[in-house]
Amino acid sequence: MSSPTPRMIAVKDGSIGWMIFNNPERLNAVSLDMWEAVPKIIAEFESDPEIRVIVLKGAGDRAFVAGADISQFEAQRNNPESVATYEDATTLAFETIARAERPTIAMIDGYCIGGGLGIALSCDIRFAAEGSTFGIPAAKLGLAYAASGTRRLVDVVGPAFAKEIFFTARRFTCDEALSMGLINRVFTRETLEAQTRDTCSIIAENAPLTVMTAKKIVDETRKASDNFDADYCDQLIERCFSSEDYAEGRKAFMEKRKPVFRGR
Question: Which PANTHER family does this one have (predicted)?
Fold first, then answer.
């Protein structure tokens, strides 16, 4: 599959779309062209009905993503206009991942820092290898973390842990991240990819409309009560019950066989 920059790799592997941050010499720190490539890659994955899950990972064996590429800040974030352009690109990247219809998994091996943690928080599920480290060093750089990213962190770990992460700006271990709920599961480095693929296979065998509906409704429940769209949720639920996949699921159950879902 195509990518607008060699520092981002897009690979279709059966039912999995792999989006790989490919800047290993800088621990996969994200440059502007990489931020701008994220929405384009997600859109290409989402246009392919065979892709059921999107997995994000970092190239090499040292980092998932070690934040934004700070070496570019002097040239690309040195005045209000360039800051706005850069922030728009990062916000769009985060939002595109978070709003993807396909389930998204961050497969974390190594450093997951700053914007890298923001990318992981934009995913639905986070798996990590033993020895990975997590943190948001904004307080050490004098910059402010975006409100949308702060909200995602609070949604995942709660306000008390979010404040600890921001206030201390320190690195957290895998065990600490797991205890906070920052990540879903920890695996050995040798089994991380296999475990991720196994989860993708399980998801891919399930009814896509049901999975997508669950994702959208869970996200809807995170909104303030006065913004919760019950009608929208009801429409999603009705779409499942009127789908061919629901008919196939009932038929397969009666015939005692594995259903073949097609996402319609």
Answer: ENOYL-COA HYDRATASE, MITOCHONDRIAL (PTHR11941:SF54), ENOYL-COA HYDRATASE-RELATED (PTHR11941)
